[in-house]
Amino acid sequence: MKKTISVSNQGATLDTGRRNFLKLGGIGLAMAGLTLIGCDDDNDFGMTGNGPVFDLGTGDVGVLNYAYALEQLEADFYTKVVNNFYSGISSVERDLFTDLYHHEVIHRDFFKAAITGATTNILPTLEFQYPNVNFNNRNSVLATAKALEDTGVAAYNGAGKYITNPAYLVIAGKIVSVEARHASAIRNIINPGSTDFSGDDVIDANGLDLAKEPKDIVMAAGGFIKTPFTWKERGIS
Question: Which residues cross the membrane (predicted)?
């Protein structure tokens, strides 16, 4: 069964008065009043292991749940950063992390609303862990932010080809462009004035952002994710 849903960002509270480094770039406005054609709500979600383990599903629903999982992770990480800024943080870095926090919360809540309107099979709220991250240490926080943002860009690029609904593909393209800005901003904070924003570790020989398969992304980010899930359609179990 198909559903038509309307997604709005009404209720999001943002402090936009001081934004001069990163802009929302219209992403919030683009989401306001956006109409999407819902996915089939009869996808195959399985139970595996010793208890119920959520499977992301098939088709577009699977991709949306996958993106939702990654946005949950980024939002959770930046929530921890802004709730306890590391010692000696500069005003520029404080503003940057606050912007990133707002963006990722918007992305997370957007996917939750979109999937909830399209299907009853929505990824639950995940739990995360950061065993090797010292949130009071600048280098540790920046290194983790860099890894998460680079991984997020590669994840969207790699999953785009699995999206069949043009409306979802457009939104994914808008969100990944914001994620790429995040990655560049973090790299510039780490090494100001450098060309690291387009380093060989994230740009291929054709001058394009790297794209990674979901299985590789989940393997890379798995150390942060406490709540197990599967995506059988993409070989993640």
Answer: 21-38
